[in-house]
Structure formats: C-alpha cells, structure tokens
Amino acid sequence: MAQQESINILEFQQRFQTNDACRDHLFKIRWPEGLTCPICGSKDFYKITTRNVYECKCGHQISLTAGTIMHGSHTPLYKWFWAIYLAAYDKRGVSALRLQKELCVSYPTAWLMLQKIRHAMGGQDSRYLLAGIVETDETYIGGSKSGGKRGRGTEKTPIQAALSVNEEGCPEFLKMEILNDITGQSIRDFTEKHIQEGSIIRSDKYSSYKKAFEDRLYIHEAERFGIEENPEHLKWLHQVIGNVKAYIVGTYHGIGEKHLQAYLDEFCFRFNRRQFSGQLFNRLLNACMNSTTITYQEIILPVST
Ligand SMILES: [Zn+2]
Q1: Cα–Cα distance for residue pair 16/21, rounded to 1 Å
Q2: pTM of the predicted model, to two decimals?
Q3: What are 219's strand-pairing partners?
Q4: What residues does each domain of the chain span?
C-alpha cells in the first residue's frame, strides 16, 4: 500500500473547515500534476463551486467528484470529510444515528453516506489478494432459525474468513465474505476470488475443505491435531472472528443479511490498516475517490429506529 499523509484530529479540524479547502485537497489527490483539458490542452480552468466542476476556457467541463462516492450528493464536502474521518477512526464503527447528530444531516442521509463509505472500503480491499500462509475458517452470524443449534447445520448466515499470517504466525490481511453455504464448491469459489494460487491454506479437517482443495492448486494443510493438543491452531483467526462478532453485536444490533457484507467490509478495511493509524483518513479518502457511485435504489433504505 502506498504511503499517505498523516493527520491528527486537530490538524484535520483546522484544515478542512470549508468546502474550498476540501475541494483543493481532493484536487491534489485527483490531479497531482494539475488539470489539463483533454479537448484543447489548456491548463486554465475556473471553478464552478456550486457543482464542484472545473470549466476550461473552451467550455469543456470536468467534475471533481465524478467516479467518487460523493458524486451527485447535495451534502457539502466538509460534511463528507467529517463522515470519512469518523468512519476511519472509530474502531467500533460510527453509527448513522451518531453521524446524523454530529453532522446535522437527516438520518437517511447519514445512513446512505455510511453505506457508500463501506462500499468504498470493500472496493479498495477487493484489489488485494491474500498470499503466502492463509488461515481460513467459517463462522455463523445472526439469529438461528433452527431451535438454537450452533455452527454447521444452522440457518444462521455462513461467513467465510481468511487471514494471511507472516512466518511468525502474526496476522497480516483479512477477508470475510457471506457464502450461500459451506460446501467445497463455495469455499473454493471464495478462495479463488481472494487467495493467490499456490498459497498455503490452513484449515480444520471439515470435509468441505478437503473437497475444495483436492486439485492441489493450493497447498492445503488441514489441522493435524485437535485444538486441545494444539492451542495455536488458527489462533489469530479465531480471535479476529470473535472480535468481528462482538463488533456486529455491539455496534450494529440486529442488522439484516442484506447489509451484513457492508459491515464485514468495514471491519476488514480498518483491521487491514491497523498499523497506519495517522494515515487512516487519507487512506479512506483515497478509497472513496476510487469508488463507483452507488445510489439510493441500490441500497434499499431501512426504517430509522
Ligand atoms: Zn479546453
């Protein structure tokens, strides 16, 4: 990951008080070499600030926010900056209710802003593949519909988690995704999407894992000992899964399956950048600049509680 400028809350608050300041910052990220008109080659533009658009003397217009999550939004840029800042730094995840109060926006606006930010987080992490040694396991989140049964065979939402670890066994990068089921084929599809071929995959001995890796394009190491004999087995992954569950239950009570992936993406994004604390705002802002816009219709709005 490329280095980004560090910023603390005091610097942030002083620097981004106005839309002009936010616009200048976005401009520098988007066009570090300056803006050149693709029609006439001129570098002379003037700003149409009401629409975050730059217009060349030839009449050609270029939007600063096109292709970003902020495009088409009526919310001022400085409020977007604050939403991104809070989403980047609050380890428990900022709620729509809190954003509504802090930014003086409506609940639906706050909710949609956060969903768009989560969409950008997921999009950014989808650019990376796990590689090397990767621990994987499944977990289940949500209310059970089958009389309180736990684990495999319940009707909770199955989620596959994969965590790359270094040679000392310490965690590096995390991916989590909702699966339709925990069959060998589903695990295989998840693996091909998120893990580089040839990687070492560590899992338990569940038959679906054996089936998923029988063609040996990955090096599969199933648990050789029971957890009693080897407490180190998938230790970090199990700890991370525990943290994800606490985060989902603690911050976002009772979210439906429709939105669960977005919250998993948010958790993974922050986890994967835990070493870059000062840079989190600019890292997330960059992700938001590279994201395709999603609309109201694509994220059906829930009823405010
Ligand atoms: Zn021009």
Answers
A1: 5
A2: 0.87
A3: 200
A4: 133-254
CA 221 from centroid of its chain's CA atoms = 29
Using alpha carbons, select from 215, 237, 235 the residue that is nearest to residue 225: 235
Q: How would DSSP label each residue in 190-224?
A: HHHHHB-TT-EEEE---HHHHHHTTT-SSEEEE-S
36 C-alpha to center of ligand 1: Å? Answer: 8
First to last CA, the chain: 38
Distance from residue 48's CA to the centre of ligand 1 (Å): 15
What is the distance in A from the centroid of ligand 1 to the CA of 292? 26
Q: Which residue has 């280095």 as its token pair?
A: 3
Three-state DSSP at 228 gives: coil
Secondary structure letter of residue 159 according to DSSP: E
- 225: tokens are 């000992």
Query: Cα of 242 to ligand 1 centre, how many Å?
Result: 55
Q: What is the pLDDT of residues 92-107, one digit of tens each?
A: 888 899 999 999 999 9
pLDDT tens-place string over residues 243-285 = 998 888 776 666 677 788 999 999 999 999 998 888 999 999 9
User: From the CA of 294, how far away is ligand 1's center (Å)?
Assistant: 30
Please state, in angstroms and rounded to a whole number, the distance separating the CA atoms of residues 196 and 203: 16
Give the per-residue pLDDT at 171.
92
| CA 35 / ligand 1 centre spacing (Å) | 10
Alpha carbon of 46 to ligand 1 centroid (Å): 11
Question: What CATH code would you report for 133-254?
Answer: 3.30.420.10
Ligand 1 mean position, distance from CA 38 (Å): 7
